[in-house]
Amino acid sequence: MKVFTTKGLLEFNDLKIIDVIDVGDNHRKIATEFYWHDELVRRDVTVSMLRPLETQSIEGVLGG
Question: Which one, of 44, 51, 59, lies nearest residue 23 by Cα?
Fold first, then answer.
């Protein structure tokens, strides 16, 4: 299987893959880093919010 990277398509088995997990006050970030000969060639990141963001609704009149 090949993976698209900054060096083009590389074989999956030729890459070293590391998962990095960061948990903050209101987020969880999971990054999958792909290394080829100790060089970072791809990074996929997923961010999950742990609580909804606080929002403020502003009422207004359209066209007025």
Answer: 51
Phi, psi of 55 (to 5 degrees): -125, 155
Q: Note whether 33 and 3 are within 8 A (CB).
A: no
Task: Kindly report, residue by residue over 3-36, the tens digit of the pLDDT.
Answer: 999 999 999 999 999 999 999 999 999 999 999 9
Overall domain count for the chain: 1
Range of the domain at 23: 2-49
Whole-angstrom Cα distance, residue 31 to residue 23?
A: 11
